[in-house]
Amino acid sequence: MKVELRKTFQFEAAHLLPHLPKAHKCRRLHGHSFKAEVAIAGDCDPLLGWLMDYADINEAFKPLWEKLDHRYLNDIRGLENPTSENVAAWIWKHLKPRLPQLTEIVVAETCTARCVYRGE
């Protein structure tokens, strides 16, 4: 049985987008209550009845959460231009080695704006 699991993480962070015109509101320092959704897919283990323990997803994401939560994203290596797109790709790059079954990262910076990233 093929299944997909999704786990959502929340982090609070500040950023600015340095390449925008100076008059653009996102060029100014501001913050978001970000949500990052991690999706993995694969075959369900017939004995256990699951693809993976959600606790394993939590454990894989924890070091990233610690780098992101209550931080200034522009100070994080690789996130000097922390758009939602770049945050999603950064999470993918750091999470894929820990979760080989990773298929998608969704980063929402507001309740109505989000980016979906499915790897390279």
Describe the structure.
The protein has 120 residues and is α+β, with helices and mostly antiparallel strands. It starts with a strand and ends with a strand. Strand 4 and strand 5 (114-117) form a beta hairpin. It is elongated. The longest helix has 15 residues, at 54-68. The mean pLDDT is 97. It is 22% helix and 34% strand. It has 2 helices and 5 strands, in the order ββαβαββ. The chain has a 5-stranded mixed sheet.
Biggest pleated sheet? 5 strands, mixed
Order of helices and strands: EEHEHEE
> Helical proportion?
10-25%
Structural class: alpha+beta
Approximate strand percentage: 25-35%
Radius of gyration: 16 Å
Contiguous low-pLDDT stretches (5 residues minimum) are none
Let me know the average pLDDT.
97
Quaternary arrangement of the chains shown?
Answer: single chain
Give the helix tally.
Answer: 2
How does the overall form come out from the CA principal axes?
Answer: elongated
- Order of adjacent strands in the largest pleated sheet: 3-1-2-4-5
The total beta strand count reads 5
Span between termini: 26 Å
Features of this protein?
120 residues; alpha+beta; 2 helices; five-stranded mixed beta sheet; single chain
Task: Describe the secondary-structure layout.
Blueprint: E1 2-15, E2 30-43, H1 54-68, E3 71-72, H2 84-95, E4 102-108, E5 114-117
Parallel strand pairs: 1-3
Antiparallel strand pairs: 1-2, 2-4, 4-5
Can you give me a brief rundown of this structure?
This protein is an alpha+beta fold. The protein has helices at residues 54-68, 84-95; strands spanning 2-15, 30-43, 71-72, 102-108, 114-117.
